[in-house]
């Protein structure tokens, strides 16, 4: 009988400890969530898009030779297409090849192209020199990747020189997509400045031409990531 009472006592103590632990865990969860209905309690998603027109940070880094360099992105500067590339990215290789050969598509206005890689701790200057050649300015700056919140490579950011603001950004697998991004960005700049962007039909026609140039036509699998509309589900 004594053994049974002792066993029950131990079980009750263990149960009390378990319940106390659950209550503490629940209280911590409620503390982190905040009061019910509290405005702004839900965190913004990590991949939330940048606000159009937000000020572009200056870029500080080094050249391939190790010299310090800084690119000013404030208002009144030259419009810039920042190409965030890596030496270890397979998709980046086609961009490196065209940049080195000077075969990039014509940039609108006086837009310059600048390649941005991470620091020497992540990249090899000798390898980058082989890839980039002398065809394009290159800055090694991990801090730029952080400040511009670059999620992947290759990734492109268009900075409008007149305003110093970011007017377009996104990932791309070819120059056709980059050119499309630039055209949309310039449309947005025109609208912001009181001008007029191309009409809906004009933009739709341009998108169709871009897709056709990339080999994507009606019925292409990439247009239906979940399967073609008339294709039976599996």
Structure in words:
38% of the residues lie in helices and 15% in strands. Strand 6 (155-160) and strand 7 form a beta hairpin. By secondary structure, it is of the alpha/beta class. The protein is globular and about 90 Å long. Mean pLDDT is 73; it is low at 25-49, 195-204 and 220-234. The longest helix is centred in the first third of the chain and has 32 residues, at 2-33. It has 6 helices and 7 strands, in the order H-E-E-E-H-E-H-E-H-E-E-H-H. It has helices spanning 2-33, 92-101, 125-132, 142-147, 175-192, 200-213; strands at residues 59-62, 68-71, 80-84, 112-117, 138-140, 155-160, 165-171. The protein has a 5-stranded mixed β-sheet with strand order 5-4-3-6-7. The protein has a domain at 59-213: Glutaredoxin. The relative contact order is 0.12.
CATH topology of the domain at 59-213: Glutaredoxin
Mean pLDDT: 73
Query: Helix count?
Result: 6
CATH superfamily of the domain at 59-213: Glutaredoxin
Sheet with the most strands? Answer: 5 strands, mixed
Order of helices and strands: HEEEHEHEHEEHH
Q: Which architecture of the domain at 59-213 would the CATH scheme give at its second level? A: 3-Layer(aba) Sandwich
Number of separate strands: 7
Strand arrangement across the biggest beta sheet: 5-4-3-6-7
Compute the CA-based radius of gyration. Answer: 27 Å
Q: What global shape is seen?
A: globular
What assembly state would you assign to the polypeptide chains in this entry?
A: single chain
- The helix-and-strand class reads alpha/beta
């Amino acid at each position: 009988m004594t053994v049974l009472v002792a066993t029950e006592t131990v079980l009750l103590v263990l149960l009390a400890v378990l319940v106390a632990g659950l209550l503490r865990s629940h209280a911590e969860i409620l503390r982190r969530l905040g009061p019910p209905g509290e405005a702004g309690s839900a965190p913004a998603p990590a991949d939330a898009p940048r606000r159009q027109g937000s000020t572009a940070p200056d870029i500080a880094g080094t050249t391939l030779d190790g010299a310090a360099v800084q690119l000013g992105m404030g208002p009144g500067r030259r419009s810039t297409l920042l190409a965030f590339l890596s030496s270890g990215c397979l998709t980046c290789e086609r961009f490196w090849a065209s940049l080195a050969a000077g075969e990039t598509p014509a940039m609108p206005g006086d837009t310059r192209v600048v390649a941005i890689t991470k620091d020497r701790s992540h990249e090899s200057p000798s390898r980058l020199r082989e890839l980039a050649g002398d065809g394009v300015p290159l800055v090694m700056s991990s801090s730029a990747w952080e400040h511009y919140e670059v999620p992947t490579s290759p990734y492109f950011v268009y900075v409008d020189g007149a305003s110093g603001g970011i007017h377009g950004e996104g990932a791309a697998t070819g120059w056709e997509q980059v050119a499309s991004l630039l055209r949309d960005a310039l449309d947005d700049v025109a609208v912001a400045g009181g001008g007029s962007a191309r009409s809906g039909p004009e933009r739709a026609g341009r998108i169709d031409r871009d897709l056709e140039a990339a080999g994507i036509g009606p019925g292409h699998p990439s247009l239906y990531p979940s399967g073609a509309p008339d294709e039976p589900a599996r």
